[in-house]
Amino acid sequence: MSSDKIDLAELSPDVVIVGGGAVGLVAAVYLASRDVRVLILEAGPEQLHQDSQTIFQAAVSKGRKHAGLHQGRFRALGGTTNFWGGQLVRFDRTVFAQRPWLSDAVWPISLEDIEPFYAECERLLGLPDGLSDDFTVIKKLQTPAEYRDDDLEYFYTRWLTEKNLRFRFARFLEGNANVTVATNAPVTSLRISAGGEIAAVTVGFGAQAVEVAARLVVLANGTVEMVRLLQHQTTDGYAPPWGNNPWLGRGFLDHLEGTIASLKPLEKSLFRSLFDNVFLQGMKLQPRLRLSEARQIEDELLGAAIHVKFEAQEHVQNAKIFLAGLLKGRLSNPERIASEIWAAARLGFPMAWHYLVNQRIWSPMNGNIQLRVMLEQVPLPSSTITLSEIRDEYGMRIPELSWAVSGEKEIRTIQAAAALSKHYFESRGIAKVAIPELILAGGPELLASFVDTFHHMGGVRMGISESDGVVDPMCRVFGCENLYVMGAAVFPTSGFANPTFTAMALALRTAEMIKLQVQR
Q1: How does the average pLDDT of the chain come out, rounded?
Q2: pTM of the predicted model, to two decimals?
Q3: What's the CA gap between 15 and 27, in Å, rounded?
Protein backbone atom coordinates (compact mmCIF):
# COMPACT_ATOMS: atom_id res chain seq x y z
CA MET A 1 0.00 0.00 0.00
CA SER A 2 1.36 3.44 -0.90
CA SER A 3 2.19 5.83 1.93
CA ASP A 4 -0.10 8.48 0.46
CA LYS A 5 -3.03 6.18 1.30
CA ILE A 6 -1.93 5.72 4.90
CA ASP A 7 -1.98 8.37 7.58
CA LEU A 8 1.44 7.53 9.00
CA ALA A 9 1.18 10.10 11.77
CA GLU A 10 -1.85 8.29 13.18
CA LEU A 11 -0.12 4.92 13.46
CA SER A 12 1.32 3.63 16.73
CA PRO A 13 3.35 0.53 15.88
CA ASP A 14 5.51 -1.34 18.36
CA VAL A 15 8.28 -1.56 15.79
CA VAL A 16 9.13 0.51 12.71
CA ILE A 17 11.20 -1.39 10.16
CA VAL A 18 12.99 0.85 7.66
CA GLY A 19 13.33 -1.11 4.42
CA GLY A 20 11.11 -3.73 2.78
CA GLY A 21 13.74 -6.02 1.29
CA ALA A 22 14.60 -9.61 2.18
CA VAL A 23 15.69 -8.88 5.74
CA GLY A 24 12.93 -6.40 6.56
CA LEU A 25 10.16 -8.64 5.22
CA VAL A 26 11.36 -11.77 7.01
CA ALA A 27 11.68 -9.88 10.30
CA ALA A 28 8.24 -8.28 9.87
CA VAL A 29 6.55 -11.63 9.19
CA TYR A 30 8.27 -13.18 12.20
CA LEU A 31 7.28 -10.35 14.55
CA ALA A 32 3.72 -9.85 13.28
CA SER A 33 2.99 -13.56 13.61
CA ARG A 34 3.92 -13.19 17.30
CA ASP A 35 1.50 -10.32 18.00
CA VAL A 36 3.98 -7.48 17.58
CA ARG A 37 2.59 -4.51 15.64
CA VAL A 38 4.96 -3.70 12.79
CA LEU A 39 5.15 -0.86 10.27
CA ILE A 40 7.37 -1.40 7.22
CA LEU A 41 8.57 1.81 5.58
CA GLU A 42 9.78 1.05 2.05
CA ALA A 43 11.39 3.97 0.21
CA GLY A 44 10.41 2.68 -3.23
CA PRO A 45 7.13 1.71 -4.90
CA GLU A 46 5.34 -1.61 -4.55
CA GLN A 47 6.58 -2.70 -7.97
CA LEU A 48 10.00 -1.79 -9.32
CA HIS A 49 10.01 1.25 -11.59
CA GLN A 50 12.92 2.87 -13.40
CA ASP A 51 12.23 6.21 -11.72
CA SER A 52 12.85 4.64 -8.31
CA GLN A 53 16.35 3.57 -9.40
CA THR A 54 17.72 6.95 -10.46
CA ILE A 55 18.73 7.82 -6.90
CA PHE A 56 21.35 5.05 -6.97
CA GLN A 57 22.99 6.40 -10.11
CA ALA A 58 24.10 9.50 -8.19
CA ALA A 59 26.18 7.50 -5.69
CA VAL A 60 29.90 8.27 -5.91
CA SER A 61 32.62 5.62 -6.25
CA LYS A 62 36.21 6.69 -5.60
CA GLY A 63 38.02 3.45 -4.76
CA ARG A 64 38.31 0.17 -6.60
CA LYS A 65 35.62 -0.11 -9.29
CA HIS A 66 32.40 -1.42 -7.78
CA ALA A 67 29.61 -2.12 -10.28
CA GLY A 68 27.16 -3.10 -7.55
CA LEU A 69 27.03 0.43 -6.17
CA HIS A 70 24.86 1.45 -9.12
CA GLN A 71 23.53 -1.83 -10.53
CA GLY A 72 22.99 -4.10 -7.55
CA ARG A 73 20.54 -2.08 -5.46
CA PHE A 74 16.77 -1.94 -5.93
CA ARG A 75 14.38 0.52 -4.33
CA ALA A 76 11.04 -1.30 -4.29
CA LEU A 77 9.12 -3.67 -2.05
CA GLY A 78 11.09 -6.92 -2.04
CA GLY A 79 14.38 -5.06 -2.53
CA THR A 80 17.09 -7.10 -4.23
CA THR A 81 14.87 -10.20 -4.18
CA ASN A 82 13.18 -8.68 -7.24
CA PHE A 83 16.24 -9.79 -9.22
CA TRP A 84 18.32 -12.28 -7.22
CA GLY A 85 18.63 -15.98 -7.91
CA GLY A 86 17.27 -17.01 -4.51
CA GLN A 87 20.49 -18.75 -3.46
CA LEU A 88 20.73 -19.84 0.19
CA VAL A 89 24.13 -20.70 1.72
CA ARG A 90 24.94 -21.04 5.40
CA PHE A 91 28.14 -19.57 6.79
CA ASP A 92 30.89 -22.01 7.76
CA ARG A 93 32.03 -22.34 11.36
CA THR A 94 35.38 -20.92 10.22
CA VAL A 95 33.83 -17.52 9.55
CA PHE A 96 33.10 -17.03 13.25
CA ALA A 97 36.49 -18.25 14.46
CA GLN A 98 39.38 -15.93 15.21
CA ARG A 99 41.70 -15.98 12.21
CA PRO A 100 44.85 -13.96 12.99
CA TRP A 101 46.02 -14.14 9.37
CA LEU A 102 42.81 -12.44 8.22
CA SER A 103 42.70 -9.41 10.52
CA ASP A 104 41.72 -8.54 14.07
CA ALA A 105 38.07 -8.55 12.96
CA VAL A 106 36.14 -11.29 14.74
CA TRP A 107 32.49 -12.09 15.33
CA PRO A 108 31.39 -11.74 18.98
CA ILE A 109 28.93 -14.62 18.43
CA SER A 110 29.30 -18.23 17.27
CA LEU A 111 27.64 -20.36 14.61
CA GLU A 112 25.63 -22.04 17.38
CA ASP A 113 24.02 -18.69 18.18
CA ILE A 114 22.62 -18.48 14.65
CA GLU A 115 21.86 -22.11 13.76
CA PRO A 116 18.31 -22.23 15.25
CA PHE A 117 17.40 -19.17 13.20
CA TYR A 118 18.74 -20.67 9.98
CA ALA A 119 16.21 -23.45 10.56
CA GLU A 120 13.41 -20.96 11.31
CA CYS A 121 14.31 -19.01 8.18
CA GLU A 122 14.14 -22.20 6.09
CA ARG A 123 10.65 -22.79 7.47
CA LEU A 124 9.50 -19.28 6.59
CA LEU A 125 10.96 -19.56 3.09
CA GLY A 126 9.36 -22.93 2.45
CA LEU A 127 12.41 -25.18 2.07
CA PRO A 128 11.29 -28.79 1.55
CA ASP A 129 11.91 -31.17 4.45
CA GLY A 130 15.10 -33.19 4.29
CA LEU A 131 17.04 -30.93 1.96
CA SER A 132 18.92 -28.72 4.41
CA ASP A 133 21.69 -31.25 5.11
CA ASP A 134 24.31 -31.95 2.43
CA PHE A 135 25.05 -35.52 3.54
CA THR A 136 21.36 -36.40 3.37
CA VAL A 137 21.22 -35.12 -0.21
CA ILE A 138 24.46 -36.91 -1.14
CA LYS A 139 23.07 -40.18 0.20
CA LYS A 140 19.72 -39.70 -1.52
CA LEU A 141 21.41 -39.04 -4.89
CA GLN A 142 23.97 -41.83 -4.41
CA THR A 143 26.71 -39.37 -5.28
CA PRO A 144 29.94 -41.15 -6.37
CA ALA A 145 32.66 -41.44 -3.70
CA GLU A 146 34.91 -39.21 -5.80
CA TYR A 147 33.25 -36.20 -4.16
CA ARG A 148 35.37 -36.76 -1.02
CA ASP A 149 38.51 -34.68 -0.56
CA ASP A 150 40.51 -33.38 2.39
CA ASP A 151 41.19 -29.95 0.89
CA LEU A 152 38.02 -29.23 -1.09
CA GLU A 153 34.69 -29.98 0.56
CA TYR A 154 31.75 -30.90 -1.65
CA PHE A 155 28.50 -29.09 -0.79
CA TYR A 156 25.27 -27.73 -2.25
CA THR A 157 23.76 -24.29 -2.44
CA ARG A 158 19.95 -24.17 -2.38
CA TRP A 159 17.85 -21.99 -4.68
CA LEU A 160 14.35 -20.83 -3.78
CA THR A 161 11.45 -21.57 -6.09
CA GLU A 162 9.66 -18.28 -5.36
CA LYS A 163 12.58 -15.88 -5.19
CA ASN A 164 10.75 -12.57 -4.80
CA LEU A 165 9.80 -12.25 -1.15
CA ARG A 166 7.16 -9.65 -1.99
CA PHE A 167 5.21 -12.44 -3.68
CA ARG A 168 6.18 -15.13 -1.18
CA PHE A 169 4.75 -13.14 1.74
CA ALA A 170 2.01 -11.26 -0.14
CA ARG A 171 -0.91 -13.10 1.46
CA PHE A 172 0.50 -12.63 4.96
CA LEU A 173 1.25 -8.94 4.43
CA GLU A 174 -2.25 -8.30 3.12
CA GLY A 175 -4.12 -10.37 5.67
CA ASN A 176 -2.33 -9.97 9.00
CA ALA A 177 -3.63 -7.08 11.10
CA ASN A 178 -0.31 -6.72 12.94
CA VAL A 179 1.65 -5.56 9.89
CA THR A 180 1.29 -2.42 7.78
CA VAL A 181 3.35 -1.78 4.66
CA ALA A 182 3.90 1.77 3.44
CA THR A 183 5.64 2.15 0.07
CA ASN A 184 7.04 5.39 -1.39
CA ALA A 185 7.99 6.19 2.20
CA PRO A 186 11.69 7.16 2.29
CA VAL A 187 13.08 7.67 5.80
CA THR A 188 15.26 10.78 5.61
CA SER A 189 16.30 11.31 9.23
CA LEU A 190 15.83 10.17 12.81
CA ARG A 191 14.58 12.29 15.70
CA ILE A 192 16.49 11.74 18.93
CA SER A 193 14.90 12.27 22.34
CA ALA A 194 16.58 14.04 25.24
CA GLY A 195 17.41 10.62 26.66
CA GLY A 196 19.29 9.56 23.52
CA GLU A 197 16.65 7.21 22.14
CA ILE A 198 14.84 7.37 18.79
CA ALA A 199 11.67 9.39 19.33
CA ALA A 200 10.47 9.21 15.72
CA VAL A 201 11.55 8.59 12.15
CA THR A 202 11.04 11.30 9.53
CA VAL A 203 9.47 10.18 6.26
CA GLY A 204 9.81 12.45 3.23
CA PHE A 205 11.27 15.92 2.98
CA GLY A 206 10.24 19.53 3.47
CA ALA A 207 6.54 20.33 3.64
CA GLN A 208 5.67 16.72 2.80
CA ALA A 209 7.63 15.28 5.74
CA VAL A 210 5.79 13.18 8.32
CA GLU A 211 7.08 11.90 11.64
CA VAL A 212 6.28 8.37 12.78
CA ALA A 213 6.76 7.47 16.44
CA ALA A 214 7.62 3.94 17.57
CA ARG A 215 8.84 2.15 20.65
CA LEU A 216 11.59 0.44 18.67
CA VAL A 217 13.20 1.20 15.30
CA VAL A 218 14.94 -1.31 13.02
CA LEU A 219 17.14 -0.30 10.08
CA ALA A 220 16.95 -2.97 7.37
CA ASN A 221 17.41 -0.78 4.31
CA GLY A 222 20.55 -2.21 2.73
CA THR A 223 24.18 -1.59 3.64
CA VAL A 224 24.88 1.63 1.72
CA GLU A 225 21.57 3.32 2.54
CA MET A 226 21.72 2.19 6.16
CA VAL A 227 25.20 3.65 6.66
CA ARG A 228 24.08 6.85 4.96
CA LEU A 229 21.09 7.25 7.31
CA LEU A 230 23.22 6.56 10.39
CA GLN A 231 25.80 9.13 9.27
CA HIS A 232 23.18 11.74 8.39
CA GLN A 233 22.30 14.52 10.79
CA THR A 234 19.23 14.06 12.95
CA THR A 235 15.86 15.68 12.27
CA ASP A 236 16.91 18.53 14.55
CA GLY A 237 20.08 19.06 12.52
CA TYR A 238 22.52 17.63 15.07
CA ALA A 239 25.05 14.82 14.83
CA PRO A 240 23.57 11.52 16.10
CA PRO A 241 24.85 10.11 19.42
CA TRP A 242 26.60 7.24 17.57
CA GLY A 243 28.12 9.59 14.98
CA ASN A 244 31.63 9.44 16.48
CA ASN A 245 31.80 5.65 16.50
CA PRO A 246 35.17 4.79 14.89
CA TRP A 247 33.69 1.88 12.88
CA LEU A 248 30.66 3.59 11.38
CA GLY A 249 31.07 3.41 7.61
CA ARG A 250 34.36 1.50 7.83
CA GLY A 251 35.18 -2.09 6.93
CA PHE A 252 32.96 -2.25 3.82
CA LEU A 253 33.16 -5.72 2.27
CA ASP A 254 32.22 -7.53 -0.90
CA HIS A 255 33.09 -10.86 -2.43
CA LEU A 256 35.53 -11.19 -5.32
CA GLU A 257 34.69 -13.50 -8.22
CA GLY A 258 36.57 -14.60 -11.31
CA THR A 259 37.65 -17.50 -13.55
CA ILE A 260 40.53 -19.67 -12.31
CA ALA A 261 40.62 -22.43 -14.95
CA SER A 262 38.96 -24.06 -17.94
CA LEU A 263 37.82 -27.69 -17.94
CA LYS A 264 37.73 -30.50 -20.47
CA PRO A 265 35.68 -33.43 -19.13
CA LEU A 266 37.39 -36.82 -19.42
CA GLU A 267 34.69 -39.01 -17.88
CA LYS A 268 31.44 -37.25 -18.75
CA SER A 269 29.10 -39.49 -16.77
CA LEU A 270 31.18 -38.99 -13.61
CA PHE A 271 31.44 -35.27 -14.32
CA ARG A 272 27.66 -34.97 -14.64
CA SER A 273 26.92 -37.05 -11.56
CA LEU A 274 29.11 -34.71 -9.52
CA PHE A 275 28.48 -31.27 -11.02
CA ASP A 276 25.13 -31.16 -12.79
CA ASN A 277 22.61 -29.09 -10.85
CA VAL A 278 20.19 -31.24 -8.86
CA PHE A 279 16.42 -30.80 -8.79
CA LEU A 280 14.74 -32.35 -5.72
CA GLN A 281 11.25 -31.78 -4.32
CA GLY A 282 10.84 -28.71 -6.52
CA MET A 283 14.12 -27.07 -5.44
CA LYS A 284 17.36 -26.59 -7.36
CA LEU A 285 20.58 -27.53 -5.60
CA GLN A 286 23.92 -26.56 -7.10
CA PRO A 287 27.04 -28.66 -6.33
CA ARG A 288 30.15 -26.68 -5.39
CA LEU A 289 33.54 -27.11 -3.75
CA ARG A 290 34.89 -25.02 -0.88
CA LEU A 291 38.26 -24.72 0.81
CA SER A 292 38.24 -26.93 3.90
CA GLU A 293 38.73 -25.42 7.32
CA ALA A 294 41.95 -27.41 7.76
CA ARG A 295 43.40 -26.11 4.50
CA GLN A 296 42.44 -22.52 5.34
CA ILE A 297 44.16 -22.75 8.72
CA GLU A 298 47.27 -24.57 7.53
CA ASP A 299 47.93 -22.26 4.58
CA GLU A 300 46.37 -19.13 6.13
CA LEU A 301 43.86 -18.74 3.29
CA LEU A 302 40.57 -16.89 2.99
CA GLY A 303 37.21 -18.59 2.59
CA ALA A 304 36.49 -19.52 -1.03
CA ALA A 305 34.04 -21.65 -3.04
CA ILE A 306 34.40 -23.01 -6.57
CA HIS A 307 31.67 -23.75 -9.07
CA VAL A 308 31.48 -25.05 -12.63
CA LYS A 309 30.18 -22.61 -15.23
CA PHE A 310 28.97 -23.85 -18.61
CA GLU A 311 29.32 -21.21 -21.31
CA ALA A 312 26.48 -22.80 -23.28
CA GLN A 313 24.33 -22.52 -20.15
CA GLU A 314 23.59 -18.96 -21.30
CA HIS A 315 21.58 -20.41 -24.20
CA VAL A 316 19.68 -22.60 -21.74
CA GLN A 317 18.84 -19.55 -19.67
CA ASN A 318 17.64 -17.70 -22.77
CA ALA A 319 15.42 -20.65 -23.64
CA LYS A 320 14.00 -20.71 -20.12
CA ILE A 321 13.29 -16.97 -20.25
CA PHE A 322 11.58 -17.39 -23.61
CA LEU A 323 9.42 -20.31 -22.41
CA ALA A 324 8.49 -18.41 -19.25
CA GLY A 325 7.46 -15.49 -21.42
CA LEU A 326 5.18 -17.72 -23.47
CA LEU A 327 3.56 -19.06 -20.30
CA LYS A 328 2.87 -15.50 -19.17
CA GLY A 329 1.48 -14.44 -22.54
CA ARG A 330 4.54 -12.48 -23.59
CA LEU A 331 6.48 -12.91 -26.82
CA SER A 332 10.02 -11.73 -27.41
CA ASN A 333 11.30 -9.98 -30.52
CA PRO A 334 9.20 -11.36 -33.43
CA GLU A 335 12.29 -11.42 -35.65
CA ARG A 336 13.90 -13.94 -33.29
CA ILE A 337 10.92 -16.18 -32.51
CA ALA A 338 11.85 -18.89 -35.02
CA SER A 339 15.41 -19.22 -33.73
CA GLU A 340 14.23 -19.14 -30.11
CA ILE A 341 11.65 -21.88 -30.70
CA TRP A 342 14.35 -24.00 -32.35
CA ALA A 343 16.78 -23.36 -29.48
CA ALA A 344 14.11 -24.21 -26.91
CA ALA A 345 13.20 -27.45 -28.67
CA ARG A 346 16.82 -28.47 -29.29
CA LEU A 347 17.82 -27.87 -25.68
CA GLY A 348 14.54 -28.72 -24.01
CA PHE A 349 14.31 -32.40 -24.93
CA PRO A 350 17.70 -33.54 -23.57
CA MET A 351 17.20 -31.38 -20.49
CA ALA A 352 13.80 -32.96 -19.79
CA TRP A 353 15.06 -36.51 -20.42
CA HIS A 354 18.14 -36.08 -18.24
CA TYR A 355 16.04 -34.62 -15.43
CA LEU A 356 13.47 -37.42 -15.56
CA VAL A 357 16.13 -40.15 -15.50
CA ASN A 358 18.64 -38.62 -13.09
CA GLN A 359 16.79 -35.89 -11.16
CA ARG A 360 19.46 -33.51 -12.44
CA ILE A 361 19.42 -30.38 -14.58
CA TRP A 362 21.23 -31.10 -17.82
CA SER A 363 24.28 -28.95 -18.54
CA PRO A 364 25.43 -28.73 -22.20
CA MET A 365 29.11 -29.60 -22.76
CA ASN A 366 29.51 -28.28 -26.30
CA GLY A 367 30.93 -24.96 -25.14
CA ASN A 368 33.67 -23.65 -22.91
CA ILE A 369 33.46 -24.95 -19.32
CA GLN A 370 35.03 -22.75 -16.70
CA LEU A 371 35.88 -22.99 -13.04
CA ARG A 372 34.89 -19.87 -11.14
CA VAL A 373 35.80 -18.95 -7.60
CA MET A 374 34.11 -16.60 -5.15
CA LEU A 375 36.14 -15.57 -2.13
CA GLU A 376 36.02 -13.27 0.83
CA GLN A 377 38.21 -10.23 1.16
CA VAL A 378 40.36 -9.11 4.05
CA PRO A 379 38.38 -6.54 6.10
CA LEU A 380 40.06 -3.14 5.81
CA PRO A 381 39.28 0.03 7.81
CA SER A 382 40.22 1.97 4.66
CA SER A 383 37.27 0.42 2.77
CA THR A 384 34.64 3.04 3.56
CA ILE A 385 31.21 4.51 2.98
CA THR A 386 31.07 8.24 3.67
CA LEU A 387 28.86 11.19 2.73
CA SER A 388 29.63 13.54 -0.15
CA GLU A 389 28.61 17.19 -0.18
CA ILE A 390 26.02 16.58 -2.91
CA ARG A 391 22.40 16.26 -1.76
CA ASP A 392 19.56 14.29 -3.29
CA GLU A 393 15.93 15.32 -3.78
CA TYR A 394 15.19 14.49 -0.13
CA GLY A 395 17.92 16.75 1.20
CA MET A 396 20.14 13.79 2.15
CA ARG A 397 23.83 13.79 1.27
CA ILE A 398 24.79 11.31 -1.46
CA PRO A 399 26.85 8.29 -0.31
CA GLU A 400 30.45 7.93 -1.44
CA LEU A 401 32.01 4.45 -1.60
CA SER A 402 35.75 3.87 -1.47
CA TRP A 403 36.10 0.09 -1.84
CA ALA A 404 39.54 -1.21 -0.92
CA VAL A 405 41.02 -4.71 -1.31
CA SER A 406 44.37 -5.66 0.24
CA GLY A 407 45.55 -8.02 -2.50
CA GLU A 408 48.20 -10.40 -1.17
CA LYS A 409 45.97 -12.82 0.76
CA GLU A 410 43.25 -12.69 -1.89
CA ILE A 411 45.76 -13.58 -4.62
CA ARG A 412 47.23 -16.47 -2.59
CA THR A 413 43.72 -17.83 -2.01
CA ILE A 414 42.85 -17.60 -5.71
CA GLN A 415 46.03 -19.44 -6.68
CA ALA A 416 45.47 -22.10 -4.03
CA ALA A 417 41.89 -22.65 -5.23
CA ALA A 418 43.14 -23.13 -8.79
CA ALA A 419 45.91 -25.57 -7.80
CA LEU A 420 43.66 -27.61 -5.50
CA SER A 421 40.96 -27.75 -8.19
CA LYS A 422 43.44 -29.04 -10.75
CA HIS A 423 44.49 -31.84 -8.41
CA TYR A 424 40.86 -32.65 -7.52
CA PHE A 425 39.64 -33.04 -11.11
CA GLU A 426 42.74 -34.61 -12.65
CA SER A 427 43.63 -37.07 -9.86
CA ARG A 428 40.13 -38.58 -10.17
CA GLY A 429 40.13 -38.65 -13.96
CA ILE A 430 37.10 -36.30 -14.03
CA ALA A 431 38.49 -33.55 -16.23
CA LYS A 432 41.64 -31.94 -17.58
CA VAL A 433 42.22 -28.52 -16.00
CA ALA A 434 44.03 -25.62 -17.67
CA ILE A 435 45.00 -22.73 -15.40
CA PRO A 436 45.56 -19.39 -17.18
CA GLU A 437 48.99 -17.79 -16.95
CA LEU A 438 47.37 -14.78 -15.30
CA ILE A 439 46.43 -16.94 -12.32
CA LEU A 440 49.82 -18.64 -12.12
CA ALA A 441 51.71 -15.33 -12.29
CA GLY A 442 49.67 -13.55 -9.64
CA GLY A 443 50.15 -9.84 -9.22
CA PRO A 444 47.84 -6.84 -9.54
CA GLU A 445 46.61 -7.87 -13.00
CA LEU A 446 45.08 -11.02 -11.52
CA LEU A 447 43.25 -9.08 -8.84
CA ALA A 448 42.06 -6.50 -11.37
CA SER A 449 40.38 -9.26 -13.41
CA PHE A 450 38.14 -10.18 -10.47
CA VAL A 451 34.82 -8.35 -10.00
CA ASP A 452 32.49 -7.52 -7.14
CA THR A 453 29.37 -9.64 -6.64
CA PHE A 454 26.85 -6.99 -5.45
CA HIS A 455 27.18 -8.43 -1.93
CA HIS A 456 27.35 -5.28 0.21
CA MET A 457 28.56 -6.04 3.74
CA GLY A 458 30.21 -4.26 6.66
CA GLY A 459 30.10 -0.60 7.61
CA VAL A 460 28.04 -1.17 10.77
CA ARG A 461 30.00 -4.08 12.12
CA MET A 462 29.14 -6.10 15.21
CA GLY A 463 31.42 -5.90 18.22
CA ILE A 464 31.70 -6.29 21.97
CA SER A 465 32.00 -2.55 22.61
CA GLU A 466 31.97 0.79 20.81
CA SER A 467 35.72 0.54 20.32
CA ASP A 468 35.41 -2.44 17.98
CA GLY A 469 31.90 -2.19 16.52
CA VAL A 470 28.80 -0.10 15.86
CA VAL A 471 26.26 -2.65 17.12
CA ASP A 472 26.37 -5.13 19.99
CA PRO A 473 26.03 -8.93 19.60
CA MET A 474 22.21 -8.55 19.40
CA CYS A 475 22.60 -5.88 16.69
CA ARG A 476 21.51 -2.97 18.89
CA VAL A 477 23.33 0.29 18.11
CA PHE A 478 25.74 1.26 20.87
CA GLY A 479 24.49 4.37 22.63
CA CYS A 480 20.83 3.97 21.66
CA GLU A 481 18.59 1.54 23.51
CA ASN A 482 15.78 1.36 20.94
CA LEU A 483 17.64 1.31 17.61
CA TYR A 484 18.55 -2.00 15.93
CA VAL A 485 20.26 -2.90 12.67
CA MET A 486 19.37 -5.90 10.50
CA GLY A 487 21.39 -6.87 7.47
CA ALA A 488 24.83 -7.76 6.15
CA ALA A 489 26.16 -4.37 7.24
CA VAL A 490 26.83 -5.89 10.69
CA PHE A 491 29.24 -8.55 9.34
CA PRO A 492 32.83 -8.15 10.67
CA THR A 493 34.00 -10.82 8.17
CA SER A 494 32.13 -12.57 5.41
CA GLY A 495 33.43 -15.98 4.37
CA PHE A 496 32.59 -16.86 0.76
CA ALA A 497 28.83 -17.37 1.06
CA ASN A 498 26.08 -15.19 -0.35
CA PRO A 499 25.22 -12.99 2.67
CA THR A 500 21.42 -12.92 2.37
CA PHE A 501 20.64 -16.15 4.22
CA THR A 502 22.84 -15.29 7.20
CA ALA A 503 21.50 -11.72 7.24
CA MET A 504 17.95 -13.09 7.43
CA ALA A 505 18.86 -15.59 10.17
CA LEU A 506 20.54 -12.84 12.19
CA ALA A 507 17.46 -10.67 11.68
CA LEU A 508 15.25 -13.39 13.18
CA ARG A 509 17.63 -13.68 16.14
CA THR A 510 17.32 -9.94 16.75
CA ALA A 511 13.56 -10.08 16.13
CA GLU A 512 13.19 -12.65 18.91
CA MET A 513 14.87 -10.24 21.34
CA ILE A 514 12.68 -7.38 20.09
CA LYS A 515 9.57 -9.50 20.65
CA LEU A 516 10.57 -10.11 24.26
CA GLN A 517 11.33 -6.41 24.73
CA VAL A 518 7.91 -5.39 23.37
CA GLN A 519 6.04 -7.95 25.47
CA ARG A 520 7.58 -6.92 28.80
Answers
A1: 89
A2: 0.90
A3: 11
